[in-house]
Specification:
Blueprint: H1 4-9, H2 16-35, H3 37-43, H4 90-98, H5 106-120, E1 122-123, H6 131-137, E2 139-140, H7 142-155, E3 160-169, H8 171-176, H9 182-191, E4 196-204, E5 207-211, H10 217-222, E6 239-241, E7 247-249, H11 256-266, H12 268-291, H13 295-304
Parallel strand pairs: 1-2
Antiparallel strand pairs: 3-4, 3-6, 3-7, 4-5
Amino acid sequence: MLSPRQLKDREYIMPAPFVRLMAKGIIGVLKVGTFHLPSMLRMRKISEGEERYVRPARHYELPEYKEGMRTVRSDEKYLRPTLFCDPNDPLIIAMAHELGAFQVPDRVFAERAHHLVKELMFVEEMPIDDAATTLRRGTGACFHLASVLIALCRCAGIKARYKLFAMSMISSWYDSTMGADFLMKKWYDILGYFVLEAEVEMLIDGEWVNGVVGADAAWQASTGLQVSRLGETSLGDWFEAVPGSYMIMESLPLGLATLYATLVSTVPGSFERVNVSLEKQRKNGWRIIEEAGGLEAYDALKRVDKVQMPKVELEQKGSITFD
């Protein structure tokens, strides 16, 4: 069991911005429940005739772990195991070797790991679990997918960390997520601009490199975006960080998984509707890519005609201004 000092050192304890964000999230849920209780009770379950979410099949094979496979067992910051992110799990080690750990340059490994998590794993809103479980399943929210990429990098000796922030989003992103369910929309709208997002930073050749894994190419195409690559961030393109919410962390904090699981159990139907919408958006995205002449042609076009993130006057939203 970790001591209080170790908990703080590994950043398991929520920093002040995170505590404020969680408090606002709880307040938002309570407001929705207070002012929209009949709708909440009605919509928390999927009614007869509504489309049900079917998890997509995993798009990769799980490699077999073999005794003696190399991994970095270190207590150094950004290399050691943290909450929900164990780089020494046998499945993580096996996958890291499948991607060329200790055999190819760090940049090449990071590119391969980023492609696996971003393009072959899919977004599914659900309670937070560990990186190996997520890799075995093939789906997860941004926190899950970030943990998988970080675990793979740490296993291969590449320092990696979480980049967390509360964000505002472009309208097409809003429509495919918050707009998919009445309660989700009300929660987001009441809070102003509150949805937590997770990205990854990896230390490659002495430089911290961004990795966005919360949306595959098809989902990005469905919302009119260019396809993000290793080294690029969502900030300034389809998200903006709420002032005071930007956090670089070694670990996901204690309490986040409990809060997230509580929210999912409170309105499971709402989360299922969002997941149904995401799958529809993904299928539509592949149609858009095919009509553009393929992934490379689509991306080239969008990088010329890049979506511009609207500037949000956050100072007018006193309820979301942090010290």
